[in-house]
Amino acid sequence: MIYKKRTKKSAPKPGRKKTKADPTPSGGNTPRTRMALAKEATAKAAKAAEDVAAKASTAVDATTAVEREVLDVAPIKVEYAPPSTPTCTRRHARSNYTCCD
């Protein structure tokens, strides 16, 4: 078997390597701070959802109140004139199932 010769790593030259910039100035990219940020975000989202639900319920209450006001009007009664011809004919009057009983 032929083995490849391993090369030695050279020492980094000073000033060449760029350091990673910290995304948060307080060094907040740790699991603990990420968890705190996530909890704050969920709390904000829950509060926003409660606000939206409250607004929706007030809108529903307002619409039901308006519907009640509109529907409280007394219905109009219509009187129809009696028909000029009888509703059933003589042929049907003799049968067992009549409308003129």
What key attributes describe this structure?
101 residues, elongated
Topology:
Layout: H1 31-71, H2 90-93
Describe the structure.
- By secondary structure, the chain is mainly α.
- The protein is 45% helix and 0% strand.
- The longest helix is centred in the middle third of the chain and has 41 residues, at 31-71.
- The protein is elongated and about 115 Å long.
- The model has no long low-confidence stretch (mean pLDDT 76).
Helicity, in percent? Answer: 40-55%
Q: Low-confidence stretches at least 5 residues in length (pLDDT < 50)?
A: none
User: What is the mean pLDDT?
Assistant: 76
N-to-C terminal Cα separation, in Å?
115 Å
Q: Looking at the structure, what is the overall shape?
A: elongated
Count of individual helical segments = 2
Give a short summary of the structure.
The protein has 101 residues and is an all-alpha fold. The protein has two helices and no strands.
